[in-house]
Amino acid sequence: MRPVRAWGHEKTVRLVPVRDPGSGTGRQAPAVELAAVSKTYPGQVRALDEVTLTVDRGTFLAVMGPSGSGKSTLMHCAAGIDTPTGGRAFIDGTEIGALSETRRTELRRRSVGFVFQSYNLVPSLSVEDNIMLPLRLAGRAPDKEWIRGLVDRVGMSGRLAHRPSELSGGQQQRVAIARALAARPAVVFADEPTGALDLRTGREVLALLRDLVDGLGQTVVMVTHDPAAAARADRAVVMADGRIVDTLVKPTAAELATCVTRLETE
Description:
Elements: E1 2-6, E2 9-13, E3 32-41, E4 45-55, E5 60-64, H1 71-78, E6 86-91, E7 94-95, H2 101-111, E8 112-116, H3 127-137, H4 144-153, H5 169-181, E9 187-191, H6 199-216, E10 220-223, H7 227-230, E11 235-240, E12 243-249, H8 253-265
Parallel strand pairs: 5-10, 5-11, 8-9, 9-10
Antiparallel strand pairs: 1-2, 3-4, 3-6, 6-7, 11-12
Helix pairs in contact: 3-5, 5-6
C-alpha cells in the first residue's frame, strides 16, 4: 500500500489487479484474439493478410515492423476501431464483428484503453477531468478509490488541478495512461507512446507501462518502431507485408533491430 494525496486529503489505497486470471469457474478468454484477420482497402490494398494472434491477460506485447507493414492496421482491427474484411477479432471474449456500431462503441469504452503519441488530452480540462472523461462519456460512476491509487501510481497526485499546458510531455503522457486505465479495461493499446518524448522521459513512461503489467496485471499492446521500447515487452511480433513474420519472447533491442533491418533491406 502507498499513501495517496488526491482530492484534497490523504488516504491509503491498495490497487488490486485489473483482472484476476484465476477468478471465476473457468478459464478466462484472452484479452485480445485475432483469427485469420485480413483487411483490404479500396484499390485492393491488402493491409492485413490472415493474421492470427492471441494476447493473454496480464502480458505486454509489442508490435514492430517497417513502415507500411500493417502494424497500425492490426491495432485498429484488434481494438475495434476498424472492421476486418476477413476473419474474426475478439476483445475480452466478445467478437467485434458481431456487434452493431453502437455496441462496438460500448465495448471499447468498457474494455479498451488508448494511449497515443500526441497524448490527446483536452486542453480546457484539468488533469482530474481528463482522467475522468471516458467514464463520464460512458455514463459510469467512477471508482474513486481506484482512481486515487491510479493517480498516485503514475505520479500525478499533486497535479490534479493543472491544465495540460502546464505539464511536461512526460507528465501529459502519464495523465493519458491514467485516463486509459480509469475504466479498468481488459487491454490498453499504446500507439508509439514514447514517440514525442525525449530519451529519459520515454524510458520513464516505458517503465510505468511495464509496472502496470507486472503490478496490476494490466494487458498492454504497444505499436512501436523503437527496438529499445519493444524490448520492454514480454513478447514482440514483427510484421511485414501485412503478416506476422517473426515472434520473439523476451526480446533484446539488438535482436529486434536486426530483425527489422533485415526486413527493410530484403
